[in-house]
Design goal:
This protein has a single domain, classed as Aldolase class I (TIM Barrel). About 35% of the residues lie in helices and about 20% in strands. The protein has eight helices and ten strands. The strands form two sheets. The chain has an eight-stranded parallel β-barrel with strand order 1-2-3-4-5-6-7-8, surrounded by six helices. Helix 3 packs parallel to helix 4 and helix 5 runs parallel beside helix 6.
Length: about 220
C-alpha cells in the first residue's frame, strides 16, 4: 500500500552480543532478550540478558521477555537484568500494571496478546489503558504446555488490524513473520513495529542474509 509508514523493527531471541550488534547495524530499533520460558526458542540465562542490555546503546530498546505472572516477581526480574522495557508474554495474574510502573519508573511495559478471535480485541481494549504498547503474537497460553511466543505461526492479521485501529497505543506485530511475508503483513496491519525471531534464523542462529532481506522488505513496504 503506497504511503504505509515504515514500522520499527524488533529482532527477538537475541543470543549474544554479536547478534545484538549485527541486528542494530542493519537497523533494529529494539532487541528481544528471552528469559526462561515453558516452551519456544531463544531463551538465554538472565546473566547473559544483563550483559547484553548493559552494552546496547541508547536509543535501542532492550526487551526482557518474561513469563512470570506476578507483578512483584516481574519487578524483581527487571531489576536483576536492567533492560529498559518489559515484555510480559503471559497474563498478569497477581498484582497490577500500576504496581510495576510505580516500582520501575521510566521502564516501558509491553503486554503480549495472543491473537485468537474477537476476544483478543476485547482483551486489547481492556489492557491498553495500562501499558505502553501491545505486541500481537500467535501463541497459546491455554495449551497444556504454554506457547508464549516463537511459534513461527501466522495469526489472523485482520483481527490485528482491527486492534490497531481501535487502541490508542503502539502495536507491535509478531508471529510467523519472514522476509517472504513481512511486506504483506505491514500493508495489512500497518503496525507501529514488527517483531521477528525464527524468520531470520537458521539452526537457531541469526542468519545475516535473511536478516538483511527482511530489512529490505520492510523498507520496500513504504
Amino acid at each position: 500500500m503506497e504511503g504505509t509508514k515504515i514500522p520499527r523493527v524488533k529482532i527477538c531471541c537475541i543470543q549474544n552480543k554479536a547478534e545484538a550488534f549485527a541486528a542494530i547495524k542493519l537497523g533494529a530499533s529494539a532487541l528481544g532478550l528471552v528469559s526462561e520460558m515453558p516452551s519456544g526458542p531463544g531463551p538465554i540465562p538472565d546473566k547473559e540478558i544483563s550483559e547484553i542490555a548493559a552494552v546496547v546503546p541508547p536509543p535501542i530498546a532492550t526487551f526482557l521477555l518474561t513469563s512470570r505472572t506476578d507483578a512483584q516477581q516481574i519487578i524483581r526480574h527487571q531489576k536483576e537484568v536492567k533492560t529498559n522495557t518489559i515484555q510480559i508474554v503471559d497474563r498478569l495474574l497477581t498484582g497490577t500494571y500500576r504496581d510495576i510502573r510505580n516500582a520501575l519508573p521510566g521502564i516501558r511495559i509491553v503486554q503480549v496478546i495472543h491473537v485468537v478471535d474477537q476476544s483478543s480485541i476485547e482483551e486489547a481494549i481492556r489492557i491498553s489503558a495500562d501499558v505502553d504498547a501491545i505486541l500481537l503474537d500467535s501463541g497459546n497460553p491455554n495449551s497444556t504446555i504454554k506457547e508464549l511466543g516463537g511459534t513461527g505461526r501466522v495469526h489472523n492479521w485482520n483481527i490485528s488490524r482491527k486492534i490497531r485501529e481501535i487502541v490508542q497505543i503502539p502495536i507491535f506485530l509478531a508471529g510467523g513473520l519472514t522476509p517472504n511475508n513481512v511486506r504483506e503483513a505491514i500493508e495489512t496491519v500497518e503496525p507501529f513495529g514488527i517483531d521477528v525471531c525464527s524468520g531470520v534464523r537458521t539452526d537457531s542462529k541469526l542468519n545475516l542474509f535473511k536478516l538483511e532481506k527482511f530489512f529490505n522488505e520492510v523498507q520496500a513496504s513504504q
